[in-house]
Amino acid sequence: MTLQPVTQPTGRQPQAGPTSRQLPAVPADAAPESLVRLRPVVFATPTAKGVHVRGWSSSFTVSGGSGVWKVWQVLARQLAGGLSPARLAAPAARPEVDRVIRLLLAQLREHDMLVEVPVGWGDREEPGLPPADLARWLESVAADPAAAWDRLRAATVTVQGSGAVAASAARTLTGTGIAARPTAGTGPDTVVRVGDTAVAARCLPETGYVTPLGGPDEVTGHAAAIAARLTGTPDATGTTDATGTTDAPVGPVVPALAALVGAAAAHRIICAVAGLPDPAEEAATLPGGEPVVPGPYHPSVLVARLDPVRASYHPWLPAARPPVPGLPADIDAVTLRLDALGDPVLGPLPPALPGDLPQIPAMLALAGPALGIGATADAARVDATLRYAETVLGVTGVDDGVAVAVGVDARHAAGAALRRLVHTVHHELATDPVDEADWASAPAARRWWKALTLRFAVPARVLAHRLPAGAVHAEIVTDAGPLAWAVEATAADAVAMAALAATGVAQARAAAVDVPAGPASLTGAAPAWRPADQHLAPWTDDSWYWPAGVVDSEQRLQAALRAALTADGTLTDLPQTPGSAVVAPRPDTGPASPPDTGEAAAVAHALTVTGFAVHRCRWTAATAPGRGA
Questions:
Q1: pLDDT of residue 31
Q2: N or C: which terminus of the chain has fewer CB atoms within 10 Å of its end residue's CB?
Q3: Euclidean distance between CA atoms 552 and 523, whole angstroms
Q4: Alpha-carbon dihedral angle through residues 83, 86, 87, 93, given to the nearest 10 degrees
């Protein structure tokens, strides 16, 4: 019999049934102090040649013959009751059975499916032991259930507030052995607190929520902002009159919703006291233990709703902190970061969605009114989100020689800002015209040029010029004016980018989208999708996945752009924090309505904590003290 373990991520589970068979006899322990048990959330089913075992967040399969399942049935039944470590280490009488047992135990330990508990844990009512249902829960989730129980028993939690939410929180805490001390509240929120750690919870007419963990004052501030976001009102803090009665902007509390919200608030505090992961972190983890979103975990709010009763976690970026540098900048990781920015419930930006926009030939997405264009759906989402963020920040152009751009990382932001400067002043730089033959045979340039001029019948022409250091500026124009522009390392990429941008605008306008006047632009510094080499079809080449690969020339391109700008002037990099980009637009160049500085500050913070970057740079001509856009 050949044994073969196979590990797999999976969901959750049916359990193996008991059996009357026994493990081979082994010497008994003398009064063991602890027992090793199978976690209650571990379940198993037989396979044709073995057993498949599933736990809370991972699974494994052991194959080797029908006898493997029989051994598992015996082992699982005895582990459910508990075996002492010494008994577990004793060898079985038959070597082939012992090999199966050792392999199963090794896999159970590797997947954290075994737990050690004191003798009598969950089996008998004693002052030092938890009730059976609580013991079973701690066995399921805690690395050390006894230590977690000791922390719960020693804790005293304050429940500040009154009403159904506070009552539910106190009831849940008491049920887990925690001493709950009720106190009068001073606002519309129920604050559940232990030491300097607290959560705030509130029920609105059809919605309830629980804040992330934080300090008592911090969570009440977040609670007011969350209520305002959920209700769409500028102030949802509530007021308290001289009698201490709270006049909160809420309607009647639905008992089922209040019970859910209060219990969820208590659950977050219970996990904090017991040293368990926050429930939102568990919800954000894939089966197998890998995080859903690469990079930092964002504090999350539990939002509960009625009809039907449901609850889900949503990132709350005002409570997040800036991540360490170096977040993944591939298109898959970036689109997951977009999900936090554009969370449909609590995100500071509208989600970028394709909606009912046409998706051929260019991919389109809208974030609010901002149009995003790309060769793939994810690229269009990124473009739409960044355009909307720049509109909120009021930094959509070059103003008085200062270019500002938002990017998925520092390289992307710097590339976009430098391109904008070059486009603004390229008529004043020493350039050479680029012949059509330099780009007309390139597949990407040819594809998007034909899409613009043939599919949409736009009577356009290309003006391409090579900059002193070798980069190419391409502009697509008609008799009515410029349609799009791009600056890239090669003429083919520059024309293709400009043609893609112009095609996307023509496609959106044909679908009755209100696209602002002025030339559009795209940049090769943005991330692009390309399948792994092992998934490439044999008949494809790099042109199938354009603009993937354009970013490989970005470092060289940015050096060329800096050289071109410093040849006839001075280029200065300015502070690069998103908050420094929150500026009021000039009345003569900015939009008719200046951006809301409160919204701009919130978006700037959200960009920072999700790993996006802002680049600001100023160009001053050698012969003049400054230059307008």
A1: 54
A2: N
A3: 13
A4: 150
Identity (one letter) of the amino acid at 238? G
Q: SS3 for 617?
A: strand
Q: Is the pLDDT of residue 176 over 50?
A: yes
- Is residue 486's pLDDT more than 70? yes
Sheet architecture: strand order including 520-521 = 432-433, 461-466, 472-478, 481-488, 520-521
What crossing angle do the helices spanning 164-175 and 255-274 adopt, rounded to 10°? 40
What mean pLDDT do residues 526-554 have?
74
In which band, very low, low, confident or very high, does the pLDDT at 541 lie, cut at 50, 70 and 90? low
| Residues 428/621, Cβ–Cβ less than 8 Å | yes
Pairing of strands 156-160, 190-194: antiparallel
pLDDT digits (tens, 9 = 90+) for 88-140: 777 777 888 888 888 999 999 998 899 998 888 877 777 778 888 888 999 98
* Helical spans, DSSP H, in 480-544: 491-510
Question: 8-20: string of b/e by CB count within 10 Å (b at 16+)?
Answer: eebeebeebeebe
* Residues with Cβ within 8 Å of residue 236, at least 6 apart in sequence: 224, 227, 228, 230, 249
- DSSP-derived 3-state class of residue 556: helix
Average pLDDT of the residues of the chain: 81
Query: Which is higher by pLDDT, 288 or 599?
Result: 599
pTM, two decimals, is 0.79
Of 21, 29, 5, residue with least CA distance to 90: 29
Q: Which tokens belong to 573?
A: 């990099």
Longest Cα separation, the chain:
96
How far does the chain reach from its first CA to its final CA, in angstroms?
Answer: 77
CA dist list (Å): 348 to 315, 379, 428, 629 = 10, 20, 40, 29
What distance in Å separates the CA atoms of residue 13 and residue 54, rounded to the nearest whole number?
Answer: 6
Whole-angstrom Cα distance, residue 104 to residue 101?
A: 5
Q: What is the mean pLDDT of residues 336-352?
A: 90
In angstroms, the CA 231 to CA 236 distance is 8
Give the pLDDT score at 24. 45
In this structure, is the dihedral angle defined by the CA atoms of residues 21, 23, 25 and 30, taken in order, positive or negative?
negative
Q: Distance between CA atoms of 59 and 218, rounded to whole angstroms?
A: 40
Exposed (0-12), middle (13-18) or buried (19+): which is 591, by Cβ within 10 Å? Answer: exposed
Cα(211)–Cα(221) distance, integer angstroms: 10
